[in-house]
Design a protein that fits this description.
Layout: H1 9-22, H2 30-37, H3 42-68, H4 72-199, H5 212-223
Helix pairs in contact: 1-2, 1-3, 2-3, 3-4, 4-5
Domain KfrA N-terminal DNA-binding: 9-136
Pfam family, one: KfrA_N
Protein name: KfrA N-terminal DNA-binding domain-containing protein
Length: 225
Amino acid sequence: MGRPAEFSDDQIIQAGLELEREGGGRLVPPSVIRDRLGGGNTRRIAQIWGAFLKNRELEAARAKAAKAELPMAVRRLLDDERSSLEGRLVVLCGDIYAAAQQEQHARQAVDLEALKRELAESQQKLDAAYADNDAMFEAKRAAETAMATMTAELAEQYRRADRAEGQAAAIEGMLTAARAENAQLLERAARAEAALDRLTPRAPGEAVPVGANLVVGRADLRSGA
C-alpha cells in the first residue's frame, strides 16, 4: 500500500481558493499552497490544483462559448490550447519551486561549511591557549621545585654553619680552660721550684740559680712532657 495523502484534495483546493481570494484573483503557485497547508508533496499539490484550475477554466469556457454560440470545433480548439497552457504552467511552477529549493540548499551548504571552518579555527585557538597554559604551569612548577631545593640547601648550610659555630665556641672554651689550667700549673711549678731551691744545700758562696728549674718546667709544660 502506498503512503496515505497528508492532505485531501478538498483541503488543497480550499487552500488555493483562499489564497486566490486574498491575492485578488492572481495566480497561486503550488508552493504557496504548500506553505499555507504547512506541508505536503508539491508535485501532488500541483496536480490537484492544476486539475481544478483546468476544470474551472473548461466550465467557464463552456459557459462563455454557450453564450457566444461558438462552433464546436472552435470551442474544442480553445479548450485543448487552454489545457496545454495550464499544464505547462503547473509544470513550470513546480520547476521554479524545485530550483528555489536547490538554491536554498546550496546557500545552506555554503553557510554550513563557513561555520565549520570558524568552529575549527576557534578550536585551534582554544587548543593553543590550553597548550600555552600547560607550558606556563610546567614552568611555574619547575621554578617552585628549584626554589624549594635552593631553600632546603640554604637551610642545610645554615645548620652546618650553626654546628661549626658551636664547635668553634666549644674549642674556644676548651682552649680557655687549658690556658687557665696551664697558668695554674706554671704557678704551682714556680712555687715548687722556689721551695726546692730553698731546701737544696749549697756550698758557701755558691750563687743560687734563680728560675732555672722554673724555665725548664715551663718549657716542659708547653711541650706537653
